[in-house]
Write a structure and sequence with these properties.
With 64 residues, the protein is mainly beta. It has a single domain (5-49), classed as N-terminal domain of TfIIb. It is 9% helix and 23% strand. It has 1 helix and 4 strands. It has one helix spanning 5-10; strands spanning 20-23, 26-29, 35-39, 42-43. A hairpin with a 2-residue loop joins strand 3 (35-39) and strand 4. The chain is globular.
Length: 64
């Protein structure tokens, strides 16, 4: 899955306002770990539809 790099630079987690990173087929918040799906190349950035962080997940040291 690829997203336009300029889009990826401006996307942020709608819950904690921290940047997200593309991991496989999901956008993952570097702070809270919520995972947002991508459908037909469109990020679904809705908190109610986000997947929670997996068990054992830890925030990135580079989290902004």
């Amino acid at each position: 899955m690829t997203l336009d790099p300029s889009l990826l630079e401006i996307l942020a987690c709608p819950e904690c306002k921290t940047r997200v990173e593309l991991k496989a087929d999901r956008l993952v918040c570097v702070r809270c770990g919520r995972r947002y799906r991508i459908e037909d190349g469109i990020p679904i950035m809705l908190v109610d539809e986000a997947e929670p962080a997996p068990p054992g997940w830890q925030a990135s040291a580079a989290g902004d």
